[in-house]
């Protein structure tokens, strides 16, 4: 299925709204002492934000690893996002995996607090890029020739 530019913009907005909702969930879970769930929601907030900007480039990865790779290729390699964004994404992916599946996980409140902070910063960075991309009248096509 091919999406129109208008459809991509709407889908991007929906995904960014989900990112903000997940960040609020992460904060609420943290306040209630559910640190593992807070880390989970922090990661998924960032994933939703990443997917919100990737769709504007026509990329719709089906896996977590695909989202990391596409973010790096489409926006970090082209210097539209700092490399720290991908580093944060990888770190939160690892911590989320440990929190969700690790039998001997030692996740604590400091880890959850850091996850919320890192996710919030990365989502803000992605939102700035997304806002710039949405100013266009047509899809973002060639990251190597077109820097914002």
Set down the secondary structure blueprint.
Blueprint: H1 5-31, H2 35-54, H3 64-76, H4 83-101, H5 109-134
Helix pairs in contact: 1-2, 1-5, 2-3, 2-4, 2-5, 3-4, 4-5
Number of strands: 0
Portion in beta strands: under 5%
- Based on the coordinates given, report the CATH architecture: Up-down Bundle
Structural class: mainly alpha
Encode the helix/strand succession as letters: HHHHH
**CATH superfamily heading:** Nucleotidyltransferases  domain 2
Radius of gyration: 15 Å
What share of residues is helical?
Answer: over 70%
The top-level CATH class is Mainly Alpha
Described by strand count, sense and barrel closure, the largest sheet is: none
**Count of alpha/pi helices:** 5
Unreliable sequence segments: 143-148
Summarize the entry for a quick read.
The protein is mostly helical.
Report on the architecture of this protein.
The protein is mostly helical and 148 residues long. It has a single domain, classed as Nucleotidyltransferases  domain 2 (Four Helix Bundle (Hemerythrin (Met), subunit A), Up-down Bundle), CATH 1.20.120. Helices cover 71% and strands 0% of the residues. The protein has 5 helices and no strands. Helix 1 packs antiparallel against helix 5. The longest helix has 27 residues. The C terminus is likely disordered.
